[in-house]
Each structure stands twice: as structure tokens, then as C-alpha cells.
Amino acid sequence: MGYSDNNKSPKTDAPAAARVPRWLTAVCAGACLGLAACQSNQHGDLDQWVKKVKSEQKGHVKPLPEVKPYQTFTYHDKDLRDPFKPYVPEAERKRQAQSNTTLRPDQNRRREALEAFSLDSLKFVGTLEKEGQTWALVSAPDHTVHRVKVGDHMGQNYGKITRITENKISLREIIPNGLGGWVERDAALTLK
């Protein structure tokens, strides 16, 4: 090929786009060496351990237990007591029915101030004695102190005071027995 008139470099047969720059060749060579280094056996001990675990004997899983067939049960409630009523033995029920037919709280009498509170919320705080009459001092939840004597009523279960001592107020309450009747129950407030 010839030279040009104005002193230019000689022409080559390869086009300019087909030539590869030297820096690109160096980068490609470095990448190939890096890939070869990654294939080296750095994790050989890990590979051996995995092979050892895989070669060991496998565990044994017990078979599922045999399922027994379901047996149905028919509930016959005609001969059984009602589960929603309180249990009272037959002898006790007969005794209550015979002995407490006349026992009833007096609904027509005027209610006293301490009957508005439950017996649990009342506190016995002391006694007074005047002209042979013993009075008990009872503190109510509304922070008032009431003076009561034998025969007075207190509590929400028709409790009637039967006796007052220096450290105890004895009462007899009338409560429902669950069978449509009433029964008497002893209760007491003690000095705190």
C-alpha cells in the first residue's frame, strides 16, 4: 500500500472498530485468573463434613399408631338429674321440704338502714352499754356508724341479731334453699 502525500501513518487492512485496546485485554485476563482462583478448594473441610453426614445411617421414624374406630354413645337423660339445678341429696330435699314449709322472711316489715348493705361490707367497731341494754356499733360502707341491738336486722339476707357480746354480733339469716323454700343460717360479725 502506498503512503499519502501529507506524511500520514501507513494504512492497515483491518478496520478501526475491530482493534481491541490493550487495557481491555488486561481486564479480561485478570477476570479469567480470578475465576480460576475461585475454583480452588478453600472449603475442602466443609465438603468432607457434608459428605460424612450424608453417608451416616438415616434415622428411623416410628409408624403412626393404629386409630381405633369411634364408638358412639347415646345419652339417656330421663333417669338422670337436671345438671342445671343444684345437687341436693334426696334425704336432705325431703327434710327441707317438710321442715321449712312455713319459714319465710317477712316481706311486709319496714327495712332497716343496714339491710341495704351486704354483711361482708359491714364492720363491727365496738359496743355501748346503757341502762342494762347492750348496743353494738357497726360501720357501713358509706362511712356512717349505726347503733344496733338484739332484734334489729342487718345484711341483705334478712339477718336478725340474736346476741351481742364484746367481740361478736351473732345473727340468724334466712336464705333461699334453691328448691323454692327458705332455710335459716347462722352468721356473725366479729370485732376487728
Structure description:
- The chain is α+β, with helices and mostly antiparallel strands.
- The chain has a domain at 111-190: SH3 type barrels (Roll).
- Helix content is 20%, strand content 23%.
- It has 3 helices and 7 strands.
- The strands form 2 sheets. The chain has a 4-stranded antiparallel β-sheet, with no helix packed on it.
- The longest helix has 17 residues, at 22-38.
- It starts with 21 loop residues before the first helix and ends with a strand.
- The model has no long low-confidence stretch (mean pLDDT 81).
Give the C-level CATH assignment of the domain at 111-190: Mainly Beta
* Biggest sheet, spatial arrangement of strands: 4-5-6-7
In round numbers, the mean pLDDT is 81
Shape: elongated
Largest beta-sheet details: 4 strands, antiparallel
Search tags:
SH3 type barrels, 192 residues, alpha+beta, 7 strands, 3-stranded antiparallel β-sheet, 4-stranded antiparallel β-sheet, elongated, 23% strand, 20% helix
Summarize the structure.
The protein contains three helices and seven strands; from the N terminus they run H-H-H-E-E-E-E-E-E-E. The chain is an alpha+beta fold and 192 residues long.
Task: Walk me through the topology.
Elements: H1 22-38, H2 44-55, H3 90-99, E1 123-130, E2 133-139, E3 145-148, E4 153-154, E5 159-164, E6 168-176, E7 182-190
Antiparallel strand pairs: 1-2, 2-3, 4-5, 5-6, 6-7
